[in-house]
Specification:
alpha/beta; Beta-Lactamase
Amino acid sequence: MGMASPPMGRADRVNILVVDDRPSKLIAMEALLADLGENVVCVGSGADALRQLLEREFALILLDVNMPDMDGFEAAALIRQRPRLQHIPIIFMTAGSDDHHALQGYSLGAVDYILTPVVPEVLRTKVKVFVDLFKMTEQLKRQAEERVALAEEQARRAAAEAANLRAVFLGDAGKSMTRSLDLETTANTILGLMVPDFGDFAMLRLSAVDGDTVHVRHGDASRGTAEAETSLSASMERAVRSLGSQLLIDRGGDESVVRGVACPLHARGTTLGVLAVAVGEPRKPYDPVRIMMVEELGARAAMAIDNCLLYREIEQRDLRKEQFVAMLAHELRNPLGAITSALGVLERVGGDPADRARGVIRRQLENLTHLVDDLLDVSRITTGKISLNRSIVNLAESVERCLKTLEAGERMAGHVISGQSEEAWVEADSVRIDQILINLVGNALKYTPAGGSIDIRVRPEDDDSVVEIVDTGVGMSPEALAHAFDLFFQADRAPERTQGGLGIGLSLARQLVELHGGSVQAASDGKGCGSRFTVRFPRSAPPVPDSDGVKVSGHEIGRSRILLVEDNDDAREMLQMLLTLAGHEVYGACDGPTGIEMALSLIPDIVVIDLGLPGVDGYEVARQLRASRSKDVGLIALSGYGQAEDRRKTLEAGFDTHIVKPADPSHLSTVIATLQRGRPSPSRQTLP
């Protein structure tokens, strides 16, 4: 059982282990050593001693030689087998003065051999020597640990200061790189930061701008630069392929040294190029910190270059917009000039010249309407405000309608049109499908000289319904082909702009195709080799025939009393004249209150109302008429807006249908016929 002297409150007391099998002797030893003021731990066996030694530190062991079971020598041997315990001094205590035992004790690492009974002063003196030695050793260890800790703290501070300096440098470098949005200026700034601070020369290769541009800055014409530059170029190629930094390693000396670093420039998932820096001679090789700094500068350089490229793209878009405005003015002046001239002819002559002039006016108005519709549709698609009125459509019939429309507009100038159409059904907006085909076929007509051929084929193919348009026109270069569907893009053409156009037809066609879940592709073998456009839509099953379906014709109706409420005098007069010529009894009102008053007195069959009336608008006119005794009258809304939300608002106001300006006379007659056949209970449906 172990015993210990009571604690004395000193923080620097050390432990002394006394091992003896006789309790009386342990008590005596503890009393003798009490004056030293240290912790005296007493145990009665070698096994107990070993357990104590494994649990705490001791300055000295006083070990009795003659103990049962395990004598002092055996206990000492076990203690010395533990590396941590080998340095603890052992003083053997024995009643016999046998030289053999003394030698055996010294061989086991004993520092002294004391005969019992002990002389108290001698024992305390010897023990104090080893206690003081232990304390000195512990103090030296603490001082060494403090010096190591201080050195580590200084190293950490130095590293933190160096890291802070690097961060400040990188921050300043980033600001310098992004100060300009000019690509050439930014490239020179980047290279100026690399040379001479990080190498004798630097190379910047930008593969994403105008081909492959190399900027080189030499800071030192020292010997070996040309060779290193060649090697660095190879490292740059590897950096692009591997998407990671590459090191230029010199293996000529006793050890390999890094002479250069090439790091790829990544931004937004794209490799913009490579930044590389190297020393001409390996007198100042790159350590890990310098390599890391170069890579950090490369990351910031990539962001700066990407900013320049984005700015350049914005500038190009702005330039394209300016070109578009110029083209728009040009394109609008052409039909307006033709209309003005044709009106001059009508004012002076009649007969055949007047008929031809009317034809010119009709065609040019259709061209103007088509231009405006395309412009509006581009805006609607861009803002997500376009909707599709889907039904089951046969693409073969759509192609047939497209060709009739183009022929009526005299856009086929001696072209040879051929093709083969099979039934190919899609679930689509019939009006938008016609618009897609007119734009694509119209593009083929525009860029195919007179006498050239255009082949149009319609077919089902696996899960797709396909339209293929092949022409023998001017074709496209690979550069033009890559941008064929870009908004406002037009291939190179003569200054006189004989083909015309705004560069929106193909872009609009692609966007409308994609709204239907389809795709469109352009192909050409080059200039002068013609073009091929392939449109694919998800294929649908043919519709089930409707035996009760009846087509309504605007020419199958009789005389109707119609009231026009329109504030534009010219528009009201022309529409009134057209409907009168169609056999109707037509009245006109120039504003909302007048229209309401006339409707209540005339009790017309149909009221055609412009929604944009001043004061009391068309919506309010419709609501008041529905609340009056004229609630069963047919109401037709006229508006320059025709989106789903616009149509919904007109229905909620009480209109039967919604027609987008300019109103086609034939379509208006069909709508009137439909409403008349449904009187006095209007169908309340919106017609396209």
